[in-house]
Design goal:
There is one protein chain. The protein has a four-stranded antiparallel sheet with strand order 2-3-1-4. It contains four helices and four strands; from the N terminus they run βααββααβ. The chain is globular and about 35 Å long. The N and C termini lie close together (about 10 Å). By secondary structure, it is an alpha+beta fold. The chain has a single domain, classed as Dimeric alpha+beta barrel (Alpha-Beta Plaits), CATH 3.30.70. About 35% of the residues lie in helices and about 35% in strands.
Length: about 90
């Protein structure tokens, strides 16, 4: 099953992410290498959200990712939520 982690970013996210970006990307890449994080990226114009897609038996892998993400821990994310995604084509 796929699970989408939705992030809402703070207003000055682009500026504030600079010192945390390497840690965040290392954290995300480790999850990807373990086969948990399938695909991820920030939305642009405006840069106010990000979407991360996880594969797993349940939503816990996405929820644990969010709880320990350097961006979340350092206040760059205003709000996050996980929703199951019923993939019909692809995947």
């Amino acid at each position: 099953m796929y699970y989408i982690l939705f992030y809402k970013t703070v207003e000055d996210y682009l500026e504030r992410r600079v010192p945390l970006r390497e840690k965040h990307l290392a954290y995300a890449n480790a999850s990807h290498q373990r086969g948990e994080l399938f695909i991820a990226g920030a939305l642009a114009d405006p840069a106010d959200s990000a979407i991360l897609v996880f594969k797993g038996e349940n939503s816990s892998v996405a929820e644990e990712f969010a709880k320990n993400d350097p961006y979340v821990l350092n206040g760059l994310i205003n709000e996050w939520k996980v929703r199951p995604w019923n993939v019909v084509i692809g995947g």
